[in-house]
């Protein structure tokens, strides 16, 4: 096999050779076949391996009541609002860069996803300290909303709930980890009002956003997200 490098491509050349002999009495006829072939490859080849990217994502199987089967809830985080750049175990955010979290049903379903409560902790355990709650009763904490530090983009509308929150570090920890936790409900929009009402009239209208008619709460956690204080 011969090969050469022209600077941009690697060129390999070879040949297949075969002989076929036919004996006819005292004579032999030999047929020779030669096939030349070659292959050309780019000198610089980039290979992408999807499984090598450790995306921060979690999933949980939810068994539905009344023998209606099960569905899978997924929770993942991204650096952009188009959900094109996933946050991985190697990602580092610099405050106050925003990141986007979505909780969604993997299967097609009539249920809507409700974010009932969401908070962050420095450690992995959901009940550990310090902790910072930013969604309560389906609504963003008013101080965070007013200062545009977080935004609920969608909640209880369909199979996907999305929120944005600006990254932060813990006091006295310029290099921090954030673990996210959410209590989630699956809501049947045929039977109840699934979208929580947030604002001045929220207390009155939230009576329809009750625990009596919704499915049980399911807790999901995701992380760690690494954050550094922007100096």
Automatic annotation (TrEMBL):
Cited PANTHER family: ENDOGLIN/TGF-BETA RECEPTOR TYPE III, ZONA PELLUCIDA SPERM-BINDING PROTEIN 2
Residue span(s) of domain ZP: 1-201
Protein name per UniProt: ZP domain-containing protein
Taxonomic path: Eukaryota, Metazoa, Chordata, Tunicata, Appendicularia
Organism of this sequence: Oikopleura dioica
Residue ranges of the region described as Disordered: 197-223
Name of one Pfam family that matches: Zona_pellucida
Alphabetical UniProt keywords: Disulfide bond, Signal
Lineage: superkingdom: Eukaryota
Biased composition (Basic and acidic residues): 207-218
